[in-house]
Every structure is written in C-alpha cells, then in structure tokens.
Write a structure and sequence with these properties.
Elements (H helix, E strand, L loop, with lengths): L1 H24 L2 H17 L3 H13 L5 H27 L2 H6 L1 E5 L2 H8 L4 E9 L1 H11 L2 E5 L5 H12 L4 E4 L2 H11 L4 E4 L10 E6 L2 E6 L1 H9 L2 E10 L4 E8 L9 H18 L23
Parallel strand pairs: 1-9, 2-5, 2-8, 3-4, 3-5
Antiparallel strand pairs: 6-7, 8-9
Helix pairs in contact: 1-4, 1-8, 2-4
Protein name: Lysophospholipid acyltransferase family protein
InterPro entries: LipA_acyltrans (IPR004960)
GO molecular function, one term: acyltransferase activity
Length: about 300
C-alpha cells in the first residue's frame, strides 16, 4: 500500500509539473479561459471551494445583503481564476516577464529607509492578490529570504523552489534547522518575507480574533521579531485589472512590532491584516479554511 501511495504521488507530481510548464507556454487568454470555466462551475455548484467561500463570508461580512454577497462571490471567483492562470508565469517567468507584470510601487521608501539604517525588514504578505509576484519583486530588488515548506509532490516542489531562488533569493525550510538558519540571516540584515494569515500547525499558534472570530494565529513571527530586532512591514501585490498587472503596496506596521506580549502583538497584527483585506476583499483567498481550528473543537466548515 505504501509503495502504491508513493507511486501515485510521484505520478501526480509529474502531471502537475508538466501542466505548469504547459500553461506557461500556452497563450494567456487560453489559460485564463480554462481557469475561468473551472471557477464558474465551482460558483454554480456546491463545490468545496464555493462552500468555504460562502461560509467565510457569512462569518466575516454578516452585514452584506444577499445580492451584495452574491456579487462579491462572483468577483472572488473571477480573481481566483486570475490567480490560477498566473502561477506558471510567476514561477517560470523570466526577469523581464516578471517586471513587465509590476505596475506602480506604493511607498517603496518604507523598505529603503530601513535598509539605509542597516535594519532588517520583515515583510508580512497576505494571501491577497498574487503573493508570488511580491516575492519575485522582492528578490529582484533586495537581498531577500524567506521560509519554504516543501510540497509532497517532488517535481512540482522543484519548480517552486527554483522560482524562489532564481533571482538571488534564499529559501529556508520550515524544520528546526531551517528556522535557525532563518534567525541567523535575520541578524545579518536584508528583507525577509513571511505569510502570517494561515492557520499554523498544532502547538505553533494561539487563538486571536480575526473579523471578530477566533483564528488560530502563528506565534513564529512575534518570536522572530523579538529575537532579531527586525522591523515589520506589510506588503501586498494587488491585481490591477485595468492594466493587467500588479501594484505593490507597502506600509509600516501600525503597532509596536516589538511588543513583548504575543497575545497583544497577534491581536494588533490581525487588526491590521483585517483592515488590509477590507480594502480589496475580492482578491483575498476566501476559499482557504482560515477558521478550521477552533477552541473546544467547534466546527465552522461542513
């Protein structure tokens, strides 16, 4: 049975890797058309993705009317189709292809001023817009590094890992050895990217309000900032549908990023994350089960 599972995983990985390479070569309009069809079917059926989106919106936007909710869901599926069609170029694209997808940079001085002061910058990036383009922009312009969790599909993993390092960036694994290497590099200055809005593994987070509901939130970011003295910045790559590219938005943390209490830090961090999401709600990854871990085993999703 174990041998069959390994063989099946290997075959699936090979198929996924070839699919990524194929979509990179195909016309963008064709790839988007397929992704849009997949999301249209998902929206019109009781697919898992559509159910999760609806359950998340019911929690986070209870004030919306039924027509407003349906309109937002339609927009979310459109942006999900965009995201699905963009990954191949984000991973395999040349430097010029990546930069051609970047539009305006808002408040780049937030990073530049800190680096001029010989400070390390930690950029907290949400699952909003397309975070892969934000990483590519960072590693093209700065000595960038970040965390990397290997995929169970080896062939796909090789594509993603190469994309994270091909413009000079460094990727540290999520195991203890990788965390130690990450902390060491934090003390040597540069720009680190981290995605703080996913539920961490059991024991690596605490419950913190997010849109008024308990969300299991990582404690790692707080530990890294306290131990390294790095400065926290929020950054996002937001899809500009009118220009078919991405605008980079950077902003300082609106709270003390060296707050000694992790409970207070996480509460203030989630408040700022929520405020950012509310600016571009249609581009957030609402099909992710952000509230899957709840106190006392409460179930949010069916």
């Amino acid at each position: 049975m174990a041998y069959r599972d390994r063989t099946s995983t290997k075959i699936k990985g090979a198929i996924l890797a070839q699919l990524v390479k194929l979509t990179y070569r195909l016309p963008k309009l064709m790839v988007f058309g397929f992704a849009y069809l997949v999301n249209l079917i998902s929206r019109l059926t009781r697919s898992r993705s559509n159910r999760v989106i609806r359950q998340n919106l019911a929690l986070c936007y209870p004030e919306l009317s039924v027509p407003e909710t349906e309109q937002l869901i339609k927009q979310i599926h459109f942006h999900n189709a965009c995201l699905l069609s963009e990954f191949a170029t984000a991973w395999l694209g040349r430097r010029d292809q990546i930069l051609n997808q970047i539009g305006q940079i808002h408040h780049q001085s937030v990073i530049d001023d800190l680096l001029e002061q010989n400070k390390t910058v930690v950029v907290a990036v949400l699952h909003l817009g397309n975070w892969e383009y934000l990483w590519q922009w960072l590693q093209i312009h700065y000595p960038a590094f970040g965390m990397y969790q290997p995929s169970k599909f080896k062939q796909l993993d090789e594509i993603v890992l190469e994309s994270r390092t091909k413009f000079g960036g460094k990727a540290h694994s999520t195991d203890p050895k990788g965390i130690m290497g990450l902390l060491k590099q934090l003390r040597q200055h540069g720009v680190m990217m981290i995605l703080p809005d996913q539920a961490p593994r059991e024991g690596a987070g605490i419950y913190t309000p997010f849109f008024g509901h308990p969300a299991y939130t990582m404690t790692l970011l707080h530990k890294l900032l306290i131990k390294s003295g790095a400065t926290l910045v929020f950054g996002n790559s937001i899809r500009n549908t009118q220009q078919s590219c991405f605008d980079i938005h950077l902003e300082k943390a609106s709270f003390d990023c060296h707050e000694p209490s992790v409970e207070v830090f996480n509460q203030q961090m989630n408040q700022q994350i929520e405020a950012i999401v509310r600016r571009w709600p249609a581009q957030y990854q609402w099909n992710y089960k952000r509230f899957k871990r709840q106190p006392e085993g409460k179930k949010i999703y069916d």
